[in-house]
């Protein structure tokens, strides 16, 4: 059940990140996949930077930050 909640939170974070990063998104479905990947990326990166959030809201914030960063990185690579 926790995995399902994690996937839903990641998908919502990816959708929101796609809205925030206008012009760098790849459509709703891909942005949701990026959100799930961003949740893993944010969960790995933020503790290394000394930042951590607790609870379900914290998971969402972490996923959102990771998704925005991934969309920015993908956008830079896509331009090259």
TrEMBL record:
Keyword Zinc: no
Coiled coil location: none
Keywords: Cell membrane, Membrane, Transmembrane, Transmembrane helix
Pfam families: Transgly_assoc
Entry's localization field: Cell membrane
Topology within the bilayer: Multi-pass membrane protein
This protein's GO CC annotations: plasma membrane
Transmembrane segments annotated in the record for this chain: 28-46, 58-77
Family (UniProt): Belongs to the UPF0410 family.
PANTHER family assigned: UPF0410 PROTEIN YMGE
Protein name, per record: Transglycosylase
UniProt source species: Arenimonas donghaensis DSM 18148 = HO3-R19
Lineage: Bacteria, Pseudomonadati, Pseudomonadota, Gammaproteobacteria, Lysobacterales
